[in-house]
Design brief:
This protein has 4 helices and 6 strands; from the N terminus they run E-E-E-H-E-E-H-H-E-H. The protein is α+β, with helices and mostly antiparallel strands and 157 residues long. A hairpin with a 3-residue loop joins strand 4 and strand 5. Helix 1 (45-60) packs antiparallel against helix 3 (95-113). It is globular and about 45 Å long.
Length: 157
Protein backbone atom coordinates (compact mmCIF):
# COMPACT_ATOMS: atom_id res chain seq x y z
CA UNK A 1 0.00 0.00 0.00
CA UNK A 2 1.59 3.27 -1.06
CA UNK A 3 0.55 5.19 2.05
CA UNK A 4 1.44 2.46 4.56
CA UNK A 5 4.56 2.75 6.71
CA UNK A 6 6.10 -0.74 6.57
CA UNK A 7 7.96 -0.08 9.82
CA UNK A 8 4.57 -0.05 11.56
CA UNK A 9 4.13 -2.84 14.06
CA UNK A 10 1.81 -5.28 12.33
CA UNK A 11 1.58 -8.84 11.07
CA UNK A 12 2.43 -9.38 7.42
CA UNK A 13 2.10 -12.27 4.98
CA UNK A 14 5.10 -12.23 2.64
CA UNK A 15 5.74 -14.19 -0.54
CA UNK A 16 9.15 -14.05 -2.23
CA UNK A 17 9.65 -15.91 -5.52
CA UNK A 18 12.78 -17.31 -7.12
CA UNK A 19 14.23 -15.70 -10.24
CA UNK A 20 12.15 -16.82 -13.19
CA UNK A 21 10.15 -18.97 -10.75
CA UNK A 22 12.70 -21.72 -11.21
CA UNK A 23 12.43 -24.58 -8.67
CA UNK A 24 15.76 -23.71 -7.02
CA UNK A 25 14.73 -24.74 -3.52
CA UNK A 26 13.80 -28.38 -4.17
CA UNK A 27 10.79 -30.49 -4.97
CA UNK A 28 7.69 -31.52 -3.10
CA UNK A 29 7.51 -35.17 -2.05
CA UNK A 30 4.34 -36.87 -0.90
CA UNK A 31 4.02 -39.40 1.90
CA UNK A 32 4.67 -42.85 0.49
CA UNK A 33 2.65 -44.46 3.29
CA UNK A 34 -0.61 -43.42 1.70
CA UNK A 35 -1.50 -40.46 3.88
CA UNK A 36 -3.15 -37.83 1.71
CA UNK A 37 -2.20 -35.13 4.19
CA UNK A 38 1.58 -35.43 4.19
CA UNK A 39 3.86 -33.53 1.84
CA UNK A 40 7.21 -31.90 2.38
CA UNK A 41 10.04 -30.15 0.57
CA UNK A 42 13.05 -32.24 -0.41
CA UNK A 43 15.48 -29.32 -0.45
CA UNK A 44 18.33 -28.71 -2.83
CA UNK A 45 21.52 -27.21 -1.40
CA UNK A 46 20.05 -23.73 -2.01
CA UNK A 47 16.76 -24.83 -0.43
CA UNK A 48 18.63 -26.01 2.67
CA UNK A 49 20.37 -22.63 2.85
CA UNK A 50 17.00 -20.87 2.60
CA UNK A 51 15.57 -23.01 5.41
CA UNK A 52 18.62 -22.26 7.57
CA UNK A 53 18.44 -18.52 6.89
CA UNK A 54 14.74 -18.41 7.82
CA UNK A 55 15.61 -20.25 11.03
CA UNK A 56 18.47 -17.83 11.68
CA UNK A 57 16.15 -14.88 11.17
CA UNK A 58 13.60 -16.44 13.53
CA UNK A 59 16.27 -16.95 16.21
CA UNK A 60 18.13 -13.65 15.97
CA UNK A 61 15.94 -10.89 14.60
CA UNK A 62 14.95 -8.30 17.21
CA UNK A 63 12.52 -6.52 14.91
CA UNK A 64 10.47 -9.34 13.46
CA UNK A 65 8.92 -12.49 14.81
CA UNK A 66 8.35 -15.33 12.36
CA UNK A 67 5.04 -16.96 13.20
CA UNK A 68 4.95 -19.46 10.33
CA UNK A 69 6.90 -20.12 7.16
CA UNK A 70 7.18 -22.59 4.33
CA UNK A 71 9.80 -23.00 1.64
CA UNK A 72 8.39 -24.29 -1.61
CA UNK A 73 10.29 -25.23 -4.80
CA UNK A 74 10.14 -21.72 -6.25
CA UNK A 75 8.90 -19.42 -3.53
CA UNK A 76 8.79 -18.77 0.19
CA UNK A 77 5.82 -17.76 2.36
CA UNK A 78 6.39 -16.12 5.73
CA UNK A 79 3.89 -14.90 8.29
CA UNK A 80 5.87 -12.24 10.13
CA UNK A 81 5.12 -9.83 12.93
CA UNK A 82 7.09 -6.59 12.76
CA UNK A 83 7.57 -5.49 16.32
CA UNK A 84 7.56 -1.92 17.51
CA UNK A 85 10.55 -0.23 19.11
CA UNK A 86 9.18 -0.62 22.64
CA UNK A 87 9.12 -4.43 22.33
CA UNK A 88 12.49 -4.75 20.61
CA UNK A 89 14.31 -1.95 22.49
CA UNK A 90 15.76 -0.87 19.12
CA UNK A 91 14.42 1.46 16.44
CA UNK A 92 11.81 -0.40 14.43
CA UNK A 93 13.08 -1.95 11.22
CA UNK A 94 10.82 -2.05 8.17
CA UNK A 95 9.35 -5.17 6.64
CA UNK A 96 11.34 -4.43 3.49
CA UNK A 97 14.67 -4.43 5.31
CA UNK A 98 13.83 -7.68 7.16
CA UNK A 99 12.94 -9.46 3.91
CA UNK A 100 16.01 -7.96 2.19
CA UNK A 101 18.21 -9.35 4.98
CA UNK A 102 16.77 -12.84 4.45
CA UNK A 103 17.21 -12.69 0.68
CA UNK A 104 20.73 -11.27 1.02
CA UNK A 105 21.73 -14.04 3.46
CA UNK A 106 20.50 -16.79 1.13
CA UNK A 107 22.15 -15.19 -1.90
CA UNK A 108 25.47 -14.61 -0.16
CA UNK A 109 25.76 -18.21 1.01
CA UNK A 110 24.50 -19.77 -2.24
CA UNK A 111 26.95 -17.77 -4.35
CA UNK A 112 29.87 -19.27 -2.46
CA UNK A 113 29.03 -22.52 -4.27
CA UNK A 114 27.52 -21.12 -7.48
CA UNK A 115 28.78 -17.57 -8.08
CA UNK A 116 26.52 -16.88 -11.07
CA UNK A 117 23.23 -18.15 -9.65
CA UNK A 118 20.31 -15.73 -9.63
CA UNK A 119 18.07 -16.70 -6.74
CA UNK A 120 15.39 -14.10 -6.15
CA UNK A 121 12.84 -12.30 -8.23
CA UNK A 122 13.01 -8.57 -7.56
CA UNK A 123 10.83 -7.41 -4.67
CA UNK A 124 8.21 -9.47 -2.86
CA UNK A 125 4.47 -9.60 -2.36
CA UNK A 126 3.02 -8.61 0.99
CA UNK A 127 -0.37 -8.57 2.64
CA UNK A 128 -1.15 -6.76 5.89
CA UNK A 129 -3.06 -9.11 8.19
CA UNK A 130 -6.15 -7.23 9.30
CA UNK A 131 -8.20 -9.63 11.43
CA UNK A 132 -8.13 -12.88 13.36
CA UNK A 133 -9.99 -14.58 10.52
CA UNK A 134 -7.43 -13.29 8.01
CA UNK A 135 -4.61 -14.54 10.25
CA UNK A 136 -6.20 -18.01 10.59
CA UNK A 137 -6.74 -18.31 6.82
CA UNK A 138 -3.13 -17.36 6.06
CA UNK A 139 -1.70 -19.60 8.77
CA UNK A 140 -3.67 -22.55 7.41
CA UNK A 141 -2.57 -21.71 3.86
CA UNK A 142 1.11 -21.76 4.88
CA UNK A 143 0.76 -24.99 6.85
CA UNK A 144 -0.99 -26.79 3.98
CA UNK A 145 0.91 -25.27 1.06
CA UNK A 146 3.06 -28.37 0.36
CA UNK A 147 0.06 -30.71 0.09
CA UNK A 148 -1.59 -28.25 -2.31
CA UNK A 149 1.50 -27.83 -4.47
CA UNK A 150 -0.04 -29.42 -7.58
CA UNK A 151 -2.73 -26.71 -7.66
CA UNK A 152 -0.57 -23.83 -6.37
CA UNK A 153 -0.49 -20.74 -8.59
CA UNK A 154 3.32 -20.78 -8.40
CA UNK A 155 3.55 -24.45 -9.47
CA UNK A 156 5.60 -25.10 -12.59
CA UNK A 157 6.75 -28.40 -14.04
Amino acid sequence: MPSWDYATAATYFVTACTHGRKPLFGKIEYDKEGSANQAFLMPTAIGAICLEEIDRLAQTDRHGKIIASVVMPNHVHILLEVQDAERSEQPTESLTSIVARLKRGVTHRARKESPEVKIWQRGFHDHIVRSDADFARIYEYIENNPIRWAIDKYHVE
